[in-house]
Write a structure and sequence with these properties.
Keywords: Membrane, Transmembrane, Transmembrane helix. With 209 residues, the chain is mostly helical. It contains 9 helices and no strands.
Length: 209
Protein backbone atom coordinates (compact mmCIF):
# COMPACT_ATOMS: atom_id res chain seq x y z
CA UNK A 1 0.00 0.00 0.00
CA UNK A 2 1.51 3.33 -1.08
CA UNK A 3 1.55 6.06 1.55
CA UNK A 4 1.10 9.67 0.46
CA UNK A 5 3.38 12.12 2.26
CA UNK A 6 2.82 15.91 2.22
CA UNK A 7 6.16 17.69 1.85
CA UNK A 8 5.19 21.25 0.95
CA UNK A 9 7.00 23.91 3.06
CA UNK A 10 5.39 25.01 6.32
CA UNK A 11 6.26 28.35 8.01
CA UNK A 12 9.02 28.07 10.59
CA UNK A 13 6.70 29.63 13.19
CA UNK A 14 4.68 26.40 13.22
CA UNK A 15 6.07 24.01 15.86
CA UNK A 16 9.51 25.65 15.56
CA UNK A 17 11.31 23.80 18.36
CA UNK A 18 10.36 20.35 17.12
CA UNK A 19 10.89 21.01 13.43
CA UNK A 20 14.16 22.92 13.78
CA UNK A 21 15.52 20.13 15.97
CA UNK A 22 14.47 17.60 13.34
CA UNK A 23 16.07 19.69 10.60
CA UNK A 24 19.44 19.92 12.35
CA UNK A 25 19.46 16.25 13.34
CA UNK A 26 18.81 15.35 9.72
CA UNK A 27 21.55 17.64 8.41
CA UNK A 28 24.12 16.36 10.93
CA UNK A 29 23.29 12.79 9.93
CA UNK A 30 23.50 13.76 6.26
CA UNK A 31 26.96 15.27 6.66
CA UNK A 32 28.09 12.23 8.63
CA UNK A 33 26.85 9.88 5.91
CA UNK A 34 28.78 11.83 3.27
CA UNK A 35 31.97 11.55 5.30
CA UNK A 36 31.46 7.80 5.78
CA UNK A 37 31.14 7.24 2.04
CA UNK A 38 34.21 9.33 1.24
CA UNK A 39 36.29 7.32 3.71
CA UNK A 40 35.06 3.99 2.29
CA UNK A 41 36.96 4.55 -0.96
CA UNK A 42 34.35 2.52 -2.87
CA UNK A 43 32.58 5.30 -4.73
CA UNK A 44 30.50 8.38 -4.00
CA UNK A 45 27.18 9.83 -5.01
CA UNK A 46 27.37 12.07 -8.12
CA UNK A 47 27.55 15.40 -6.27
CA UNK A 48 30.23 14.13 -3.91
CA UNK A 49 32.24 12.85 -6.87
CA UNK A 50 32.26 16.46 -8.03
CA UNK A 51 33.09 17.79 -4.54
CA UNK A 52 35.98 15.36 -4.15
CA UNK A 53 37.32 16.13 -7.62
CA UNK A 54 37.37 19.87 -6.92
CA UNK A 55 38.82 19.39 -3.42
CA UNK A 56 41.62 17.20 -4.77
CA UNK A 57 42.59 19.87 -7.29
CA UNK A 58 42.49 22.82 -4.89
CA UNK A 59 43.63 23.66 -1.37
CA UNK A 60 40.01 23.66 -0.20
CA UNK A 61 38.53 21.15 2.22
CA UNK A 62 35.77 18.79 1.14
CA UNK A 63 33.25 20.66 3.29
CA UNK A 64 34.27 24.04 1.90
CA UNK A 65 33.81 22.77 -1.65
CA UNK A 66 30.41 21.39 -0.64
CA UNK A 67 29.35 24.81 0.67
CA UNK A 68 30.70 26.74 -2.33
CA UNK A 69 28.95 24.36 -4.73
CA UNK A 70 25.71 24.85 -2.82
CA UNK A 71 26.04 28.63 -3.07
CA UNK A 72 26.68 28.36 -6.82
CA UNK A 73 23.60 26.15 -7.19
CA UNK A 74 21.55 28.67 -5.20
CA UNK A 75 22.52 31.34 -7.75
CA UNK A 76 20.80 29.19 -10.37
CA UNK A 77 17.59 29.46 -8.34
CA UNK A 78 17.25 33.14 -9.28
CA UNK A 79 16.09 32.68 -12.90
CA UNK A 80 13.98 29.73 -11.76
CA UNK A 81 12.21 31.98 -9.22
CA UNK A 82 12.85 29.58 -6.38
CA UNK A 83 12.85 30.93 -2.82
CA UNK A 84 15.15 29.52 -0.14
CA UNK A 85 13.82 28.60 3.27
CA UNK A 86 15.41 28.16 6.67
CA UNK A 87 16.21 24.58 5.71
CA UNK A 88 17.98 25.73 2.56
CA UNK A 89 20.36 28.04 4.39
CA UNK A 90 20.98 25.53 7.19
CA UNK A 91 21.68 22.86 4.58
CA UNK A 92 24.61 24.86 3.20
CA UNK A 93 26.23 25.65 6.55
CA UNK A 94 25.61 22.58 8.69
CA UNK A 95 26.51 19.88 6.17
CA UNK A 96 29.76 21.63 5.19
CA UNK A 97 30.93 21.83 8.82
CA UNK A 98 29.83 18.33 9.81
CA UNK A 99 31.35 16.54 6.83
CA UNK A 100 34.76 18.11 7.52
CA UNK A 101 34.58 17.33 11.25
CA UNK A 102 33.66 13.69 10.69
CA UNK A 103 36.29 13.27 7.97
CA UNK A 104 38.84 14.69 10.42
CA UNK A 105 38.13 12.02 13.05
CA UNK A 106 37.32 9.15 10.67
CA UNK A 107 40.35 7.68 8.88
CA UNK A 108 40.37 6.18 5.40
CA UNK A 109 39.40 2.51 5.40
CA UNK A 110 41.98 0.04 4.07
CA UNK A 111 40.32 -3.29 4.83
CA UNK A 112 37.44 -4.45 2.64
CA UNK A 113 35.08 -5.28 5.52
CA UNK A 114 35.57 -1.80 7.00
CA UNK A 115 35.14 -0.20 3.56
CA UNK A 116 31.90 -2.08 2.88
CA UNK A 117 30.58 -1.24 6.34
CA UNK A 118 31.25 2.46 5.86
CA UNK A 119 29.73 2.41 2.39
CA UNK A 120 26.52 0.56 3.28
CA UNK A 121 26.14 2.42 6.57
CA UNK A 122 26.67 5.72 4.78
CA UNK A 123 24.05 4.96 2.14
CA UNK A 124 21.41 3.87 4.67
CA UNK A 125 22.16 6.83 6.93
CA UNK A 126 21.94 9.17 3.94
CA UNK A 127 18.48 7.86 3.05
CA UNK A 128 17.33 8.30 6.65
CA UNK A 129 18.91 11.75 6.95
CA UNK A 130 17.34 12.93 3.71
CA UNK A 131 13.91 11.86 4.91
CA UNK A 132 14.43 13.54 8.29
CA UNK A 133 15.53 16.95 7.02
CA UNK A 134 13.11 17.00 4.09
CA UNK A 135 10.37 15.81 6.44
CA UNK A 136 10.90 18.88 8.65
CA UNK A 137 9.29 20.83 5.77
CA UNK A 138 11.48 23.92 6.21
CA UNK A 139 12.59 24.31 2.60
CA UNK A 140 14.55 22.14 0.17
CA UNK A 141 18.32 21.87 -0.03
CA UNK A 142 20.02 23.82 -2.84
CA UNK A 143 20.34 20.81 -5.15
CA UNK A 144 16.80 19.59 -4.51
CA UNK A 145 15.48 23.09 -5.22
CA UNK A 146 17.39 23.22 -8.50
CA UNK A 147 15.82 19.93 -9.51
CA UNK A 148 12.26 20.93 -8.68
CA UNK A 149 12.72 24.40 -10.15
CA UNK A 150 13.99 23.09 -13.48
CA UNK A 151 11.19 20.55 -13.55
CA UNK A 152 8.59 23.27 -13.02
CA UNK A 153 10.08 25.58 -15.67
CA UNK A 154 10.64 22.93 -18.35
CA UNK A 155 7.63 20.69 -17.65
CA UNK A 156 10.04 17.76 -17.64
CA UNK A 157 9.54 15.06 -15.03
CA UNK A 158 11.50 15.30 -11.78
CA UNK A 159 13.03 11.91 -12.60
CA UNK A 160 14.32 13.14 -15.96
CA UNK A 161 15.66 16.41 -14.56
CA UNK A 162 17.38 14.70 -11.64
CA UNK A 163 18.94 12.11 -13.91
CA UNK A 164 20.20 14.77 -16.33
CA UNK A 165 21.70 16.89 -13.55
CA UNK A 166 23.42 13.97 -11.86
CA UNK A 167 24.83 12.58 -15.11
CA UNK A 168 26.42 15.98 -15.87
CA UNK A 169 27.70 16.39 -12.30
CA UNK A 170 29.07 12.85 -12.23
CA UNK A 171 30.86 13.29 -15.56
CA UNK A 172 32.51 16.55 -14.48
CA UNK A 173 33.49 15.10 -11.11
CA UNK A 174 34.97 11.99 -12.72
CA UNK A 175 37.01 14.10 -15.13
CA UNK A 176 38.35 16.03 -12.13
CA UNK A 177 39.41 12.79 -10.44
CA UNK A 178 36.49 12.13 -8.08
CA UNK A 179 35.95 8.53 -6.90
CA UNK A 180 33.46 6.58 -9.00
CA UNK A 181 32.86 2.96 -8.06
CA UNK A 182 30.42 0.38 -6.82
CA UNK A 183 29.23 2.85 -4.19
CA UNK A 184 28.12 5.25 -6.89
CA UNK A 185 25.90 2.57 -8.44
CA UNK A 186 24.56 1.34 -5.09
CA UNK A 187 23.73 4.89 -4.03
CA UNK A 188 21.85 5.58 -7.27
CA UNK A 189 19.80 2.39 -6.88
CA UNK A 190 19.13 2.61 -3.14
CA UNK A 191 18.73 6.25 -2.15
CA UNK A 192 15.26 6.76 -3.62
CA UNK A 193 13.69 3.65 -2.09
CA UNK A 194 15.40 4.25 1.26
CA UNK A 195 14.23 7.86 1.48
CA UNK A 196 10.69 6.82 0.52
CA UNK A 197 10.78 4.09 3.16
CA UNK A 198 11.66 6.50 5.97
CA UNK A 199 9.56 9.52 4.94
CA UNK A 200 6.17 8.36 6.32
CA UNK A 201 7.73 7.85 9.75
CA UNK A 202 9.57 11.15 10.09
CA UNK A 203 7.63 13.76 8.07
CA UNK A 204 6.10 16.46 10.25
CA UNK A 205 2.35 16.97 10.00
CA UNK A 206 -0.22 18.77 12.20
CA UNK A 207 -1.81 15.43 12.98
CA UNK A 208 1.40 14.17 14.54
CA UNK A 209 2.27 17.39 16.39
Amino acid sequence: MKTSVELSPVPVTTAPALRLTQLFVGLVCFGTSMAMMTRSGLGLNPWDVLHEGVADRTALSFGTVTALTAVAVLALWIPLRQRPGVGTVANVAVIAVVVDLVRWVLPDAHHLAWQVGLLLGGIVLNGFATAVYVGARLGPGPRDGLMTGLSARTNWSVRLVRTAIEVVVLAVGWLLGGTVGVGTVLFALAIGPLTQLFLPYVTWSPKRA
